[in-house]
Amino acid sequence: MPDRERDLRTRAVHAGTKLEGAAAQQVVPPVHVSAVGYFDSADDLDRSLDGQDFVYGRINSQNTALLEDAIAELESAEAAVSYSTGMAALKAVFEAQAFKQKDRVVIAADGYGASRALFKALAAERGVELHALKLDEPDAHLKLRELRPKLVLAESITNPLLAVPDVQQLAAACKKVGARLAVDATFASPVLQRPLELGADYSIQSTTKWINGHSDALGGTVAGAHALIEPLKKARILSGALLGPFEAWLTLRGLRTLPVRMRAHCEHARIVAERLSASSLFDRVIYPGAEDYPNRELSRAMLQGGLGGGLVSFEIKGADRRACFRFLESVRIAKPAPSLGDVSTFVMHAASASARRMTPEERQVAGIGENLIRVSVGLEDPEEIAHDLLQAVEQAVSVQ
Ligand SMILES: *Cc1c(COP(=O)(O)O)cnc(C)c1O
Question: Is pLDDT above 80 for 3?
C-alpha cells in the first residue's frame, strides 16, 4: 500500500523519520534520540540484545558509543564506558571489584568529599575497610605496600588542595600487592594526564567539568583495558546509569575543543596565581604550575608540558566562613558556582561545597580550612580575573 493511502494515524507515526536524497555525510553526528530500534530479522534482533547494535537505549546508544570512542582515544585506552554522572562512574568502579569481607580500599584523604562519602557508604555495605591516605606524601607507596589494599582511588590533582601524587610510583606499589589503581583524573583532564600511560588500571573523569567545558551536561567516564571495561559495560545494562544521547552529544561537542581550551585555562591560571601570590592578603596561594609549588618537580613530571591546570586555590588571611561568603558575594566577573571547568571563572568555598560531605575531623586531617577558596579560572582576560578576585578579597576582609 502506498504511504499516502495509509491511515493518518499510521502516517503520523512514520512520516519524517528519513531524509530523502540526503547522500552527503554530515560533519556532526545527529542526536540519536530514539530509545528503541528494530530489525527485519529476528536473528539480528536476538544478537543485538547482547549489545552488538543499537536496539535499546539502556543497552547501548549511538551518541554514547561515539563519545566512548573519543574518550578512549584521548585517554590512550583500549576502551571506555560512560555514565550519567561522574559519581555513577566512581560507584561502578567500586562495585566491579570482587571484594571479600575485610578487604581494604584506599582513598585520597584530601580528595573530593562526595567520593569519600560514596566510598564510605559502599565500603560499609560490602564489609570492606576504607583507609584514607595522603597519596601525595613521599611514603604513600610504602604505606600501600603495608596495607595491601584491593583498590586504590587517587586523584590526578586533588580537590580542592591541588596536591599531585606520583601516579607512577602508586601504580608500581599497587602492582606489587595486587591492587587495582583507579585515578580520578577530572582535574588534570586527559590533556595534562593520561593515568593509564602511568600504569593505572582505570582513568575516571567527571566529564561535567573540563571535558564538556560549558556546564551544559553532566556525565562520567571510565577508561581502561578491554578486560576491565567490558564487565563495566555489562553491569551498566542492569544499573541503567547510561549517559543520555543529548548529554553525550554535548559532551562530544565540548571535547572537540578540550586541548585548546585547556592550554588557555592553564595559561590564565598561571597568571592569576602569580598576581595573587604578589599580594599580602593570603596565607597561601596554591598552583601546581607555580615555581614555588611545594613539589614542583613532581607536578612537572606528572602534568604534561609542565602545565599546572586551570585551578588555583588560596587561603584568605584571617578569614572565617562569613568572610569567605562575603568574598563569594563580592566577585563581579567570577561566579560563585560549585563546579569547575567552565569557560567562565567559578569561585567556591571548599569547606561548605566540595568538602561539604566530609566530617569536620576529616576536613582537618586533609588540611581544608574555613578560609580556603578554590578558583576555576575561565577564559576571560586573566588580568581582569585577578583584579576581580583581589577586589573581592579586599571587600571581604575589610568588614569586621
Ligand atoms: C565533580 C567531580 C566528581 C563528580 O562528578 P559529577 O559529574 O558531579 O557526578 C568526581 N570527582 C571529581 C574530582 C569532581 O570534581
Answer: no
Decide: 118 in ligand 1 pocket, CB within 6 A: no
Q: How many other β-carbons are positioned within 10 Å of the β-carbon of residue 364? A: 11
Cβ of residue 220 lying under 6 Å from some atom of ligand 1:
yes
Q: Which of 23-27, 247-251, 291-295 has the lowest mean pLDDT?
A: 23-27
Q: Is 84 in the pocket of ligand 1 (CB under 6 A)?
A: no
Instruction: Based on the residue annotation, tell me whether 104 is a catalytic residue of this protein.
Output: no
Q: Is 184 a catalytic residue?
A: yes
Catalytic: 287? no
Dist. CA 56–CA 50, nearest whole Å: 10
Q: Could you tell me the CA-to-CA distances from 33 to 56, 64, 219, 242, 249 in Å, in that order?
A: 11, 11, 17, 14, 10
Q: What percent of the chain has pLDDT over 90?
A: 86
The answer to which of 35-44, 250-259, 356-365, 383-392 has the lowest mean pLDDT is 356-365
Q: Please, what is the Cα angle at 177 between 176 and 181, to 5 degrees?
A: 90
Is the peptide bond between 160 and the residue preceding it cis, with omega within 30 degrees of 0? yes
The three cell numbers locating residue 192: 595534562
Grid coordinates of 141: 607507596
pTM, rounded to two decimals: 0.95
Reported confidence tier of residue 400, pLDDT bands at 50, 70, 90: low
Is 202 annotated in the active site? no
pLDDT of 333 reads 96
Q: Which of 35, 59, 56 is nearest to 238 (CA)?
A: 59
Residues 88-106, mean pLDDT to the nearest whole number:
98
Angle between helical axes of 167-177 and 140-147 (0-180°, round to 10):
20
Closest CA to 162 of 324, 312, 361: 312
Supply 161's cell numbers. Answer: 588542595
Q: In this structure, what C-alpha cell is assigned to residue 5?
A: 493511502
Q: Is the CB of 86 under 6 A from ligand 1?
A: yes
* Residue whose grid cell is 600501600: 144
